[in-house]
Amino acid sequence: MSSELVVTRNGPVATLTLNRPEKLNALDLAQWDRLGDAVLGFESDATLRVIVIAGAGTAFAAGGDIEEFTRVRRTPAEARAYDVRVMRATRAMTGSPHAVIAAIRGACVGGGLEIACACDLRIAAESSRFGIPVARLGMAAPPEELPPMVQLLGIDGALELLLEARLYDTREALAKGLVTRVVPDDELDAEIAATAQRIAAGGALAARAHKRVVREWARAGSLSPAAIDQAYACIASDDFREGVAAFLAKRRPQFTGK
Fold first, then answer.
1. Could you report the per-residue pLDDT of 186-199, keeping only the tens digit for each?
2. CATH topology for 5-199?
3. How far apart are CA 8 and CA 192, in angstroms?
4. Is residue 35 a contact partner of residue 43, using CB atoms and an 8 Å limit?
5. Which residues are registered as beta bridge partners of 122?
6. Domain segments of the chain: what residues?
7. Any residues with CB less than 8 A from the CB of 218 and at least 6 apart, and which?
């Protein structure tokens, strides 16, 4: 993996750090591809529970690399091809069986906010800023990247964000439902670690079923028989038997993901 995307592993938690701090972690096409490759590479890893997306330095991600637009996003056809590669990365996050957390510090703008919206949880440091000010470039945001934002903000909220093209502070982002939680800047790393640990301490099969059911319902307004079957299959698992036994014995469960 390129040094522009640093992948680290700590037991059941993998952290993917966007590492272009000199550009506030703005993503070029190669970076979008690396991010998608990394998330997809963990898809079948049954020992993984959580993926954390973070940014190096003072920003989460300041969007796409605008300088690159002059070479790769000059026409409608090029823009469509560009966005297919962006969506490969964000769809990998929403489709991942693992919980995906955005650890947001500083600018979370444009494509950076698209990444955050594709995550399951968005935990932000107090000094973070959010927005999609693409109207200032005279371009529309990638149409197929907007539904997750509409799900979070509603129609009025999404239009406010896009039409006014202004940045939100964390107070406003939290009030509007754009972020899950806000913590003091110096507590972000500890909060991310604690959140990942809480997720990892639960049953893996249940967590995967919950993510699939919620994501399917949000996308389609209905549930597939396969998603329903996956949820009920937890009852036949060793984890369910261990969870009940641990509860009755008043001890911590030892889940195996089976």
1. 999 999 999 999 99
2. 2-enoyl-CoA Hydratase; Chain A, domain 1 (3.90.226)
3. 14
4. no
5. 102
6. 5-199, 203-249
7. 151
